[in-house]
Every structure is written in structure tokens, then in C-alpha cells.
Amino acid sequence: MRRRPLAIAVGLLVAPLCSGAQTPDAEAVPRAAPPSLTEVGGRDYLWDPPLAPLGPEWALCPPQQLPLVAPLRPDPAPGVLYLEAARSEVHRDGVSVFEGNVVLQRDEHRIAADTVRYYAAEIAPDAGQIEAEQVTYNRGEVFLQGDHGRFDLVRNRGTLSPVTYQLRDRHGSGSGERVELLGEDRLRVRGARYTTCAPDDLSWVLRARDLRVNRATGQGSATHVVLNFKRVPILYTPYIRFPVTDERMSGFLYPSIGQSSRSGFQLALPYYWNIAPHRDATLTLNSMSRRGLMLQSEIRYLNPRSRGEVLVDYLPDDRLYGDDRAQYYFTHRGRPTQRWTVAADYHRVSDVDYLPDFGGGLAGATASHLERTARATYRADDWVFDARAQDFQTLRGTQPYQRVPQLMFRTTRAERPGQLNLGLNSELTYFDHPTNVPTGGRGDVTAAFSYPLRGLGAFLVPRVALRHTAYALEDTGEGENLSRTVPIASVDTGVFLERDVTLGGTPMLQTLEPRLYYLYVPYRDQDELPRFDTGRYDMSFAQLFRDDRYIGPDRVGDANQLTVALTSRLLESNSGMERLSASVGQIVYFADRRVQLAPGAAPETEARSDLLGAVNARLTRHWSAGAEGHWNPEAEEWRVATARAQYRGEDRRRLNLAYRLRRDQLEQTDVAAAWPIGRQWAAVGRWVYSLQDGQSLETLGGLGYEDCCWGLRVVGRRFLTADGEYDRAIMLELELKGLSSIGERGLMDSLLQDGILGVR
After folding, report:
1. Beta bridge partners of 157
2. What is the dihedral of CA 24, 26, 27, 33, to 10 degrees?
3. SS3 26
4. Which range (21-35, 203-217, 346-360, 535-549) has the least confidence?
5. pTM for the full predicted model
6. Cβ proximity of 535 and 550 under 8 Å
7. Rounded to an integer, what distance in angstroms lies between the CA atom of residue 542 and that of residue 548?
8. What is the rounded CA–CA span in Å between residue 53 and residue 39?
9. CA-closest candidate to residue 113, choices 74, 158, 154
């Protein structure tokens, strides 16, 4: 999510008179949204652009249309005063009176009035000044209108009272008792009022007793500021400072509020610290009625060749938990040179319940490991070298081995048809563990030769490889060096057949793509080899064409098998759009699979694998659907199955329907939707239900109202935590368009971005 420029609580108070002012925002509890960091090195690559608003594209209300003073000269000479009037009188004392449609122009300043009194420059003490009645003033996108004005055209000073103003590029308008122009860059407004609502519907109004602006320093200040919503005061501050240009500045952000069944009522007060154009920090006091006061900090940096973020959260003496709670997170990405890249990630929490309590949603409740990794990569034209150190904090489950370090080298040269290709993939890793034995080093290298033959309608790719793995183990009692060498041979072949068809009057191209993949790997006894980081791939259609059923070098599966697969597609002849694709495949085994993860485990004796299939269809312009699964012919049941349908309509209408099955593990339905209701209402919801357990895993429902200058959203959420209890939360957001949000910032959009609806 992009971090939008942000002032403090009422930073846009000055917006009507300063075109550089920034729109403040606040993010959801517990973290506030600091501004975007300045671009460094030609681009801002830290955050993604925000989603478009949910529901109708509501523009801000059109402000009161003050009249435009037409320029007398499209290209005026600098410093020259141009004047036009129906009548004029020139007096001997140097005072000139102009009446009837008077228009003055000097540089960017344009003034229209009924009557103007001009004091000649050679007459003191009012040299170069004018007095005007019924005044309209234009400068850039700022429009002022008042009853009486006095201007010093030489010193760029003046007053106008009472004043009505409009800022067209911000769709804002307002009024004031008096405006004082104090030079080219400074002004003062007394009794200022501002809104983005229409003049006949002032749903919200911002008021300040005294406002001062200095565009030279990029800062402004205001005293006794009150924000009214529906004529009810909802915010007061005796004094504020705010930016009046695109530059960021330090200050308090809008407070955030929320309610959770685990933490109670939450009130977060963030302070933004603008350290430098490419460094900043956000410090937050987050008060939770049931737990206590949490201190949160977020530090960001953006350099020409690196970027990163540091988060530290600390909750002393959690009243519910009975102990101190903390979270530490660090991420860094860098490119020291054109070919070298570096990365580091560190995440640690004080206890296994921290993420379920504060992580939010099912993702935090089900996290099992937190990764800590440091990595450096060198990319040459035809090869890549990678060095990595990796560790984990285990929240639940078994503790993985540490890789300290892991060195990898592989070739990346693209396959060249009709030529002999050599590929090399190697790694050297040392594994450590606080309790498990053995520990030690492992080296693995695979050299492969292929000779691909490809034509327009067929391909044939024979490939042979030799894989060698060696171990230098410790903590085995007497030390032990083990090794394994396995040859691998495969042949991948297929043809592409096509024909022209017509469906519903639309010319289509249908393809038929049969494919055969033969794999031979002789058996090697590997029961004595340790298993540091090796597991088994989940069965999928892509897995039908891999040369190993295991991920990781500790096991190389023996194989004498043939994959038979068939894919068919329907493509629109004119556009090339794929309307339908269907694939089915199965492995035929010519020998038992003796290599297993656990030593001494019984071999696999099935003659055929499950039947794997996948279907994807673009049914209409808005509807798409897909399904995939593993069918076991012997048991006559689905082992794994997923089905989904999605509607993507105009105005961000979304409907997702999903079904997930993993035999003896889970069976779930998932329904999610975002839908406008009428012109100004929109709803969002999700329901995840476990058919296996007969209970809801997550239920969410929200309703939003959109007006042209304000919006209100409320969302209720309930999800099942890891301890089997439900966490409930109610979130509220009031958005004053052109100003900021109070409550949970961007509720509807954040739900979409978190993947609730499967769209971004």
C-alpha cells in the first residue's frame, strides 16, 4: 500500500490558500500511515499504488463557483500593472478612482471590482496601493471574493474582508472574516472555515480562529481548531502546525480507534518524525483497555541503492497475558552494484501467542514459523551465485535446521534448440540445530545435458543428468562421511494440433496438445542419509513433469515411470484470448518406489498415480471459473479438489465462490463479495466455513456509505484463533474527503488488499 503524504490532525486547513498543501491520512489500528518517502535514484520503489475507491468513483463535491477574472494580457510583462475600467477620475493628489467593471492584472495577480481607488507610487505614505469594493481575486487555482480589499501591488501585501474562497484543484471552498497577505509567501486568515462539500450541504466544516502560513519555510500554524461533522464538534486542538507544500514535516497524525474482543477498546496516537527526505519514523502510543499501553515504532529509509524498514513494538506487563510482550521486525533490500543484490529479513516475537493476539486475522493466528534470513546474490550473464544464512523462530510445530551458511551456484543460460546444452546446479550448506543430531555439512551438485529439438508442431527434449551429494556429519558418535550418486534420464515430447471451430458465431481456434514424459532414476539406498530440509512436493499437474518427487537434496526418488497428459484450449481467433483450457494427466509406474522420507518405510506399490486434472474458463466478460483436483480411481474419491468462480463487474463489483478439499485434513467453502447497493451504498463480506468441523472459520460483514465529500464504513469481523476461540472486532471509518479519515483508515480497500476477495 502506498503511504500517502500526510500532515497532522487538521493539516489541510491551509489548503484553500496554499496549493502545495497535502491531504492527511491515518491508517488502521494499530499503525498510522506516514507519508511517502522522497524519490531517490529516480523512482519510489517501496510501496504499491493504492486501489481505486470501492463502489462508484465518487468525485469531490463541486465547490462554489466563484467568477474567473479574465486576463487582460495572456503574456504580461513582469511587474507591469494593466488596468481596464468603464470610467476613471484622476485627482491632483495622485489618487485615481476607477469605476464600472474594473480589472487589474499584475503578473499572476488578477483583480476585478466595482470600484478601485489607486494611490500613485510617488505619493507617500500610500504609494502603490489600491482600495477596492466588491472584489474578486484570482491567482493560479486560488479564487477569493470579498466586500472590501486593500492591496499593495509593489510589496505584494493586502487585506480582504470578509472573504469567500475556492481552491479548484482541490475541490475545496470556504470563508473567513479577514485575509491578510503579508508578502509573496506569507498570509494570515482570521476566522477561517474550510470544506470540500457543496455550499448547500456543509456535512463537515473545519474552523480555526487564527491561521498563519509561510510558504517560504513550507509550514503553517493555526490556533483553536474545531472540526464539525453534521454540525457536531468531533475534534478540537488549541494549536497545530502543518505543511503547506509537498514537503513532509514532523507532527501528530490522526488518532486511530477500534474495538476487539481480545484487547478491548483501542486508541492509538501516532507521531510522525520527518528525519530526512529519505528517512522517517512513526512513534505510536496504543492504549488497549484490557491490556495496557503499547509502544510502537516504525523507521523507514530509502537510499539510491537500498531500502528498508524497522518495526519495534513493546507492551510492558500485558494485564491479560501477565508478562511483557514485544515484536521485532527488520527488512532490507539493496543493490550495492549492478550485479550484486543483498537482502535481510528478521522477525521475532516475545511469545507464541503474540501474533494471534496482535497479528490480525487467520494469517496471524495460524503462523507457525518466523524466518530470519541474510542473503547476497551475484548475477552474471549466464550464471548466478547465491549466499544465504537462514534461521527460524518456531511458534508451533518442529524446529527446522539452521542453514549457516548456504552457498549456491547455478547456470542460467537459456536453452538453445538443436544444440547440446549444459546446466549446472550446486550448493554447499552447513546445518545446525540446538537439539537435533546429526549436524554438519552437505554438498550437492547436479550436472545435466540436454539436446532439445523444437518445431512448429512438436518438440523432443532428451536429458541426462548426474547428481552427487556428500555429507560431513558431526555429533554422530564417531563422525561419518556419507555420499550418494544418482544418474537421471528423461525424455519429454509432445505435439501441437489445432483446428478452426465456430462457437456462438465467434471464430475460435481449438488446440489438442498430447504430451509424454518418461523418467528413469535407479534406486539408491538412502536410509543412512540424514534429512535436514527435504520434503515431498504437493501433487499437482506441474509435478507430473518433474524429475524428482522430493524437494531438497537429502532424497532422490527412484523412478521408472511414464507421464501421459493431454491439454486442450479454446482461443479466440481475432484476439487470441484463451476462453477455455482443460488438462488431464497421470503417471504410469513400471516399478515400485522404494526411496522414502523415513528410513525403513514401506515402498509405494501403486501402478498408477492419481488422475490429475485442471479446467479454467473465461465464461463471459465478467465471469470466470476454474477447478482442479486429484481423483483416486481405486478408492473412487477426490484426494484433493478446489473449485472457484469469480465475478468481476463494473464499479468494483466482486463475487468469489470457492471450495477446497484435502482428504482427512480440511473441507471448506469460501464466499466473499464486494458490491455497490444503489448509488451511495456498498457492502463487503466474507464467510469461510469448515464442512469437516461444522463451524465457521471467519465471518466478516461491512457496509459503506459514500457521499461526494464524506464516507462512513463499518465492518464487523469474527475469526477462529489457534486456541479454538473466536476473536471479534468492530471497525469504523469516517472519511472526510479532501481532509482525512478518523477510525480505521481504508477499511474496505484494506480488506481487498489483504486478499479477502482475491483481488488487488
Report:
1. 152, 182
2. 60
3. coil
4. 21-35
5. 0.75
6. yes
7. 12
8. 25
9. 158
